[in-house]
Amino acid sequence: MHVHHGARRPGAAHVTLLTEGTYPHSHGGVSVWCDQLVQGMPDLDFDVIAVTGTGREPVVWELPAQVHQVRSVPMWGEPPEGRAPRGRALTRLTAAYERFLTALLDPCAEDQFPPALYLLARAAADGTLSPFLRGDRAIALLATVWNRPGLAVREARPTLHDAVTATALLEHALRPLAAPTPEHGVAHAVSGGVAVLPGLAALDRHGVPLLLTEHGVYLRERYLGYRTAPYRWPVKAVVLGFFRLLAEESYRRAALITPGNRYNRLWEEQGGADPKAIRTVYNGVDPAAFPPAGPEPGTPTLSWAGRVDPIKDLETLIRAFSLVRAEIPEARLRLFGGTPRGGEAYWERCAALAAELGHGDAVAFEGRVEDIKDAYAAGNVVMLSSISEGFPFTLIEAMSCGRATVSTDVGGVREAVGDTGLVVPPRDPERMAAAALELLRDGDRRRAMGEAARLRVIEQFTLRQTIDTFRSIYLELPYHTREFTNPSAPEREPGRRTAAGSLAG
């Protein structure tokens, strides 16, 4: 599905946002962040290349005039158009794909990943990659490669079924390479992983600078997700090998990386990113849009806001609430947020757990709320129980509303909270319950923390700071990339401040 909206303006700086499962087809923290950037820069032109599920997802955000085009790239809908290669083209693609698979499975051949990936990208642009990967030759290649002597995956005795499964997963993961790539401006990937693929292709083909922002650590979340995925180890070895090498290539090739917190930076540096090319840019909110929430509820209440998803670990929160209610029988837990398509089973599991623990009457699944501020006002304490986060919007929004918080120590949570809330280990209901009880029993401390939290947001995490930072990056990055990728560029005068210095600080 392609949406054309608004007209391009001569001379306006141009940004192509690269998204996956977020803006403009779904709600949630990253989508809010994208909308804030777009709305905050009416003088810039934006396109969006959005990796989606089926391609039939509706646009759920009201797009401003500066968004010129939205192009949906479905990973699980109809395959990209094209036909299988023949003759020399088939021979070249077969050789490239063999090098690609070898890089995924042989630690000694990982340097072959980048050149093989860009050859696959060109085949995708020609319409031949997806048909090739859906054919028998691609499956036979994998079955041959992972049975080579000396490879660890061979010890797991991979089967033909494993080869079929892994090849299908790779075919879907590589579909974004078939998207038309931006030819000018800046390509801004708002997550790692498959969303970056059109940006890497644009950099390789047209020299378009790649800006990478990771809110959560995409690779870490893939590791977490595949721990319980219903695949045998050979399949996981192929797919996780792809995501790991893709992350490393993204870190190496990005002109600038703007993690949402310092925790992400550690992953990026370990993945091969040049520390001088990393600049932490925190998420921000408008304190006027999230004013003090007002009086607390009369009944001791814990509130939570977000999407109902395993990464949010509502099961730990429900177990913690069970311990809270053993001490404060009148306590309530209110959960605000929608359930993504495909997540219904997790919602049912959480509801069943609440009932099983005997608290079905005290745990309310409120669904999406019209005004998110109501979710924060609904609790005496706002909870965050995630096992992975970047720099969570719900947390700084709740802080701006003057509510005390209990959060898990993941991603940039501790950087956001400082000493204005309590931070506990993830997947630890006992510690989470103890922290919630500590605040529920001490109204003076709770209110003092809430006031300090709002002040912290006003001083450090405002939306204006975020937008101003990215505006300067968008305007400077094309100059920065041209200067530092041109080997014939003249040497700079000693002491002259460069675009690289101003960007990567």
TrEMBL record:
<protein>
    <recommendedName>
        <fullName>D-inositol 3-phosphate glycosyltransferase</fullName>
    </recommendedName>
</protein>
<feature type="region of interest" description="Disordered">
    <location>
        <begin position="484"/>
        <end position="505"/>
    </location>
</feature>
<dbReference type="Pfam" id="PF11997">
    <property type="entry name" value="DUF3492"/>
</dbReference>
<dbReference type="InterPro" id="IPR022622">
    <property type="entry name" value="DUF3492"/>
</dbReference>
<dbReference type="Pfam" id="PF13692">
    <property type="entry name" value="Glyco_trans_1_4"/>
</dbReference>
<dbReference type="InterPro" id="IPR047691">
    <property type="entry name" value="PelF-like"/>
</dbReference>
<feature type="domain" description="DUF3492">
    <location>
        <begin position="14"/>
        <end position="275"/>
    </location>
</feature>
